[in-house]
Amino acid sequence: MTVPRSFWVRWRVGAGYLLALLGFYFARPTKESLIEGACIALVGLMIRAAAAGIVRKGQQLATSGIYAWTRNPLYFGSTILAAGFVVASNSWIVGAIAAAYILMFYPAVVRREDRDLRERFGAEFAAYASRVSGFVPWPTRQPPGAAKFSWSQYVHNHEYRALLGTIVAMGVLALRMWLLIRYNR
User: Fold this and answer.
1) Which pLDDT score, from 0 to 100, does residue 75 have?
2) 148, 53 in Cβ contact below 8 A?
3) Which of 55, 73, 98, 109 has the fewest CB neighbours in a 10 Å radius?
């Protein structure tokens, strides 16, 4: 039986794009902020890639690799990625927008996903949730296990979109910086 998606699940991506446009408007990037932000964003992309290369959504409960430290490495990686854009944008307004978005959408979506996984995997998920952090990675006593990273799984999960989006967004911020310098604003 398919459960209708909640408001938070349906609108989080669209709202993210809208807020990104608003963020580009308020951005005041510098060469230094772009470099620092890109480095932070790269860490977020690597966390997301580590997760996307092993998760088999809807097929099995991911508990190895980075999933042994956090139940939500994709959202955690996205948060680090957002922090990279905030730093690159060099704007407290962009920081406030990003924080509001994350605090508004992520808790609701994570609760929904936890509920879905609990329904699907029952006791296995309950045991996993009792020993692994919900969001912030925290090494557990249990070793991460041998996660079998797969580039084909990475592609299957469309994670390359995050990489392409990051490249485009950083390019837009670089263009924004150039325009601000060129027109002395």
Assistant:
1) 93
2) no
3) 109
Q: For residues 68 and 123, give the distance between their C-alpha atoms in angstroms, rounded to a whole number.
A: 17
Helices (H) and strands (E) in the chain, counts: 6, 0
Does residue 1 carry a pLDDT above 50? no
61: nearest Cα among 11, 135, 124? 124
CA gap 124, 167 in Å, rounded:
38
Phi, psi (degrees; rounded to nearest 5) at 119: -65, -40
Biggest CA-to-CA distance, the chain: 61
Neighbours of 144 (CB within 10 A): 14
Q: Which residue has the tokens 């690159």?
A: 88
The CA–CA distances, whole Å, from 141 to 69, 127, 144 equal 10, 14, 9
Tell me what percent of the chain is helix, strand and coil, each rounded to the nearest 5: 70, 0, 30
Token digits of residue 81:
């990625």
- Residues forming beta bridges with residue 133, ordered by sequence position: 70
- pTM to 2 decimals? 0.84
Please list, in sequence order, all residues whose beta carbon lies within 8 angstroms of the beta carbon of residue 93, skipping any fewer than 6 positions away: 26
Highest mean pLDDT among 50-54, 85-89, 134-138, 174-178: 85-89
Tell me what pLDDT residue 146 has: 63
